[in-house]
Design brief:
Blueprint (H helix, E strand, L loop, with lengths): L8 H5 L5 H10 L19 E3 L6 E3 L4 E2 L6 E2 L4 E2 L4 E2 H16 L10
Antiparallel strand pairs: 1-2, 3-4, 5-6
The structure holds zinc ion (2 copies).
Length: 111
């Protein structure tokens, strides 16, 4: 099982939407919470939970769990277009840019 899969590999063959890229993001981004795991609760309030990104206390109805990293995001930290948090969206955008600029370069090691 190669860990350094070329996440853009499918891009040139066929543009089958965003699913392949999401798959690669899931492998790259560490899981912050399990799917279905609740966010941290605000002990000073009965019905508020903390946004995992900005730490604002918001109601559970306002929080959405990121489908990639599992973090809970308030409306300010959320990218509804992809149903992911802004943090993952930033990484997704980086990937999209990279795939456009350097289609032939390997992933390499950025650490
Ligand atoms: Zn937030
Ligand atoms: Zn996320």
């Amino acid at each position: 099982m190669p860990l350094s899969t070329r996440w853009w590999a499918g891009r040139n063959k066929k543009e089958s939407g965003r699913a392949p890229l999401f798959h690669e993001l899931r492998e790259e981004i560490p899981r912050f919470r399990k799917q279905g795991e609740l966010p941290a609760r605000d002990s000073g309030s009965f019905s508020k939970y903390f946004c995992d990104l900005c730490n604002s206390p918001v109601t559970i109805q306002e929080l959405r769990q990121c489908s990639i990293c599992g973090r809970w995001g308030c409306p300010d930290c959320w990218t509804p277009e992809y149903y992911i948090c802004n943090s993952c969206h930033g990484i997704l955008k980086m990937h999209l840019l990279r795939s456009r600029d350097e289609p032939e370069t390997g992933p390499g090691g950025s650490e």
